[in-house]
Design goal:
268 residues, mainly alpha, Helix Hairpins, 2 domains, two-stranded parallel ribbon, 12 helices, 2 strands, 62% helix, 4% strand, elongated
């Protein structure tokens, strides 16, 4: 830190806790009587930024990590990197080129909330895909027929079936009427298709008789089914909240009017 009107640098370390940041920010506000204080940092979002934006006297100047790295390389050709030197280079960049840096101006609460939820939905969908692939791989080892009888291994139908009958052996013990009722309950309305599935179940041959593979597979499948159910519920909850935010957003109609915009693209 360099106070205005001084050439003397001050250095120190700060614990990464809300309490330490609160004490530090309050001390700066008292010391400089509430005048604005420029803070340069290598991020535009994240835990540290969210903590610092609470304080109106702190003006944040985010610097892209690539910009900071190239500025450091200008004076340190070896590429050596450590926190004290990095903060010194950020301070130098702020002092010499502040007119080229843009202070952080966060979007509205509505826009940022929508952004966070859309990003979280994308991560959750990716996680659902990852767990679906794991379940597919698991079923290939001990119960591959499921992948032929049903579409969408991550569907509620497959999940409920595996939870009730986690192996071919347990599924074949079920009464045909029970299976038919189960399929109809899960919106499988085609009597012909349901009968084909039931016939295939009783004609199926186990992929393996290895007790170790069967027990490990059934336990793994049940665990993955539970994970996928939770992920589906989370995605559905995010979808509902995102839809509410888009409808209530001041610029919602503008976003919806863009060419090619749809229910999926408008929030993005």
């Amino acid at each position: 830190m360099v106070p205005a009107g001084s050439q003397q640098q001050e250095q120190g370390e700060l614990q990464n806790t809300p309490e330490a940041v609160e004490t530090w920010a309050a001390g700066l506000q008292q010391r400089f009587r509430g005048r604005p204080i420029a803070v340069c940092l290598e991020q535009a979002r994240g835990a540290l930024v969210y903590m610092l934006t609470k304080y109106s006297h702190l003006v944040l100047f985010p610097v892209h990590p690539t910009t900071a790295a190239r500025y450091r390389e200008t004076f340190c050709t070896s590429g050596a990197k450590d926190d004290p030197n990095d903060t010194g280079f950020l301070l130098d960049l702020l002092l010499r080129h502040r007119e080229r840096l843009r202070p952080l101006q966060p979007d509205t609460v509505e826009t940022r909330l929508l952004q966070f939820l859309v990003e979280e939905r994308r991560r959750t969908v990716n996680e659902r895909t990852r767990q679906s692939n794991r379940l597919t791989d698991c079923l290939k080892q001990y119960f591959p027929q499921i992948l032929l009888w049903f579409d969408g291994v991550d569907s509620p139908l497959v999940g409920d079936l595996l939870e009730r009958w986690p192996s071919l052996d347990t599924l074949r013990r079920a009464h045909p009427g029970t299976l038919r009722q189960f399929l109809q309950k899960h919106n499988c309305r085609s009597a012909e298709r349901n009968q084909e599935r039931i016939d295939a179940i009783y004609a199926a041959v186990p992929a393996t008789n290895d007790a170790a593979v069967l027990e490990a597979g059934t336990l793994t499948a049940r665990g993955l089914v539970a994970l996928l159910r939770t992920l589906r519920d989370n995605i559905a909850g995010l979808d509902r909240r995102i839809e509410q935010l888009v409808l209530a957003h001041p610029d919602g109609e503008l976003f919806a009017s863009l060419p090619g915009a749809g229910a999926v693209l408008v929030p993005v």
